[in-house]
Design brief:
This protein has about 700 residues and is an alpha+beta fold. It has a 7-stranded antiparallel sheet with strand order 14-13-19-18-17-15-16. A 5-stranded antiparallel sheet has the order 4-3-7-6-5, sandwiched between helices. Helix 2 runs antiparallel to helix 7 and helix 7 packs across helix 8. The radius of gyration is 60 Å and the shape is elongated.
Length: about 700
């Protein structure tokens, strides 16, 4: 409270004060940056110290090598006392003198070979002597006078000298090599220095870096806390690594950086604590009234969303001027919001009601509705899915061409239509197109497109199934043809026989005329009944009374009725009596229609086979012809109203396409089933009717 009264009323002034306090934090960050910079410069110091150490090591090795080479002079002088030698072999007393001298100067091995490679004199361990002799016998460049080698795991210096005869001008009579271990103590360095065998080297790792040096190989530096470790290989005179140099030393820059880092860290912590404390007080003084304002605004917002009355926000006198002005703006906005709140709620209710009504109208519409917006389908109702043979979830979000590509479209002239052009082509006038899709038969669709916006391409495509209308048109044409042909022919026969009956005829001629006229009238009646049955087949062909009917007797009577009038050979095989429950007249019509259909779709003078068989519960009647058969895709469709197959030449057979439809209606009303068996093309059609057998007398009593 007190701090809020002391601080300036302007928010800008308060923020300025906060920035001044934040500067302490910046100081701390800068100090940390200095420490980090010192750490970043550490590799430079380490590299410089490493180079200096390597220089000392190189100088120390050279000094030891020169001193060792100087020690070979007494051995050469000893050989020149030829009066003490016998046949090139040093006398025993002279050998003892040389051994004592070798121990005195601290050499580890001495080898003297003549020009033929024979040993004249040696001193030291046999393994060292053998290694030195092997070195001398190799074809090496003897330009070196001294240098390091790895002598059986021991870093060693060797010095070589050509031995001449008594006179200095004589040619060399052999090679002399003196060996001594490298002396670490002879090299003055502040850190820890060691010479090791090359195979003992740890060498370069993931935490080390490489340093170039002409006198050493594989120089690596590793930082270790306040120290650094140096590793390098000393090349030997034999071309192999002679020794590994390991040097560990502290870095002189590290303590200074550490002290400076501690000081900076202390200043940073102190500044951070002070800045944090002051910042918390200032933030609390500023945030408290702002938090209160936020809580008030949140509550008013909840009241507004719930439809409650919105009161004005209180103005805290401790708030900065800018926030006080902001509260006044909020209060003004809340007043206007409350005025529009009721109107908005009413509009939302009306919009929801309109949306529900629209959804009901679209989803339950018998017309297909496809709404396209920005080139993609946004509405696709169930009727459109039925018409176009594509599920709504597969059409939504797709271009309109995708919805029309599930089948083939042809116009009334039989011309194939590009499905992608249909929505645009139906804008000016509606299209009547035939839609064919495998497994769905043929449907006729009327398609109309109404554009609603040119900017975003919004349009509504409406589809209407007009298949029944087209079929009614076809039926009209068929009826006209039927009346002009099928009905006219019986009328002509009747009329002719009636004219004959006006004449004096004998009894047999009169009976023949009457019989023929009656048969023609019966034919006319059957045609009219088939036409009238198209719209009420299910009720019309249901059995009125269930009686026991012998299907074998019906089959024999029906086959014999066609025997003298059909150009086909009918063959009947009845394996059982097949007693079923039903209406005899309707069941007889099933066989008549199937046999008539077989005659219509098979060539004259071919065979038609009728068979009857029974099992425990079913009677099976089959009618088989030798025609072209029924295509697989039409085995279900041929039982629909007005369905007709085309002949091999593409022409349709006479009739209105009701015969098989009536067969299915009668069979199903008697509890049976009718279907076409699948057969290879060209082997004819085989229709199968199965009807439940009537129970026996015993079963009836039970």
């Amino acid at each position: 409270m007190l701090l809020a009264r002391i601080l300036p009323s302007r928010l800008g002034s308060r923020i300025t004060l906060t920035i001044l306090l934040t500067s302490l934090v910046v100081l701390a960050v800068a100090g940390v940056g200095v420490v980090l910079a010192a750490q970043a410069a550490r590799p430079l110091y380490e590299d410089e110290a490493a180079r200096e150490a390597l220089t000392h090591v190189d100088q120390g090795v050279r000094q030891q090598g020169a001193a060792l080479h100087g020690s070979t002079a007494p051995f050469g002088a000893a050989y020149r006392m030829r009066e003490a030698a016998v046949s090139g072999i040093i006398a025993p007393d002279m050998a003892d003198t040389l051994d004592a001298y070798a121990r005195q100067i601290g050499v580890s091995a001495i080898v003297f070979l003549d020009t033929n490679g024979n040993e004249v004199y040696s001193f030291g361990e046999p393994g060292h002597i053998a290694a030195i002799e092997a070195l001398l016998l190799r074809e090496l460049d003897f330009a070196w006078t001294y240098g390091p080698i790895d002598l059986q795991g021991t870093p060693t210096l060797v010095a070589r000298e050509d031995i001449v005869g008594i006179d200095p001008g004589d040619p060399p009579v052999g090679q002399l090599v003196v060996a001594a271990p490298l002396d670490v103590d002879a090299i003055s360095l502040s850190g820890e220095l060691a010479f090791e065998a090359p195979e003992a080297s740890a060498q370069v790792g993931s935490d080390s870096r490489i340093l170039d040096n002409e006198a050493f190989d594989d120089v690596a530096i590793v930082s270790e806390g306040n120290s650094f470790r140096l590793e390098a290989e000393i090349p030997g005179v034999d071309g192999r690594a002679a020794s590994t140099v390991t040097y560990l030393d502290s870095l002189s820059v590290e303590p200074i950086a550490s002290v400076f880092g501690v000081f900076i860290a202390f200043i940073t912590v102190l500044a951070s604590v002070i800045g944090l404390g002051v910042g918390l007080l200032v933030a609390r003084a500023i945030a408290r009234p702002i938090t209160g304002l936020s809580n008030h605004i949140t509550k008013r917002r909840a009241d507004a969303l719930a439809g409650h009355e919105i009161g004005p926000l209180p103005i805290d006198p401790l708030l900065p001027y800018e926030f006080s002005h902001l509260i006044e703006v909020f209060n003004s906005t809340f007043d206007e919001l409350q005025l529009h709140q009721v109107a908005l709620a009413t509009a939302i209710e009306e919009a929801d009601a309109s949306k529900k009504s629209l959804d009901i109208a679209v989803q339950d519409s018998l017309e297909g509705k496809v709404l396209v917006h920005n080139g993609l389908i946004t509405v696709f109702n169930p009727a459109a899915a039925t018409h176009l043979g594509i599920e709504p979830e597969d059409a939504l979000g797709q271009p309109p061409a995708a919805a029309f590509s599930s089948g083939a479209f042809t116009d009334v002239n039989g011309t194939l239509v590009d499905s992608s052009t249909i929505p645009d082509a139906a804008i000016d006038s509606s299209l009547i197109l035939m839609f064919e899709r495998e497994g769905r038969g043929t449907r006729w669709l009327e398609i109309k497109t109404v554009p609603h916006s040119q900017t975003d391409g919004t349009m509504l495509v409406t589809t209407r199934d007009v298949t029944d209308n087209r079929r009614l048109d076809d039926l009209r044409t068929e009826i006209v043809g039927l009346v002009s042909h099928d009905l006219r022919a019986p009328l002509t026969v009747i009329s002719g026989y009636l004219d004959l009956m006006t004449r004096n005829l004998d009894e047999s001629a009169r009976i023949k005329a009457i019989t023929s006229a009656q048969r023609s009238a019966q034919r006319m009646q059957e045609l009219l009944e088939d036409l009238l049955a198209a719209t009420r087949a299910e009720e019309m062909f249901s059995p009125i009374e269930l009686l026991r009917v012998d299907m074998s007797e019906i089959a024999r009577d029906t086959a014999s009725s066609f025997e003298h009038t059909s150009p086909h050979e009918l063959h009947l095989e009845a394996g059982c009596s097949a007693i079923v429950l039903g209406e005899e007249r309707r069941l007889r019509q099933v066989l008549v229609n199937l046999i008539t259909n077989a005659m219509k779709y098979s060539p004259a003078h071919t065979n038609i086979f009728i068979s009857l068989s029974c099992d425990d519960h079913l009677a099976t009647i089959t009618v088989e012809d030798e025609g072209s058969g029924v295509p697989e895709e039409m085995r279900e469709a041929i039982f629909e109203r007005f369905a007709r197959l085309e002949s091999d030449t593409g022409a349709r057979h006479p009739g209105v396409g009701l015969g098989l439809y009536i067969v299915r209606a009668i069979v199903e009303s008697h509890g049976g089933r009718v279907f076409v068996e699948a057969r290879p093309a060209g082997l004819g059609a085989r229709f199968v009717v199965s009807l439940p057998l009537a129970p026996t007398d015993t079963e009836t009593d039970t």
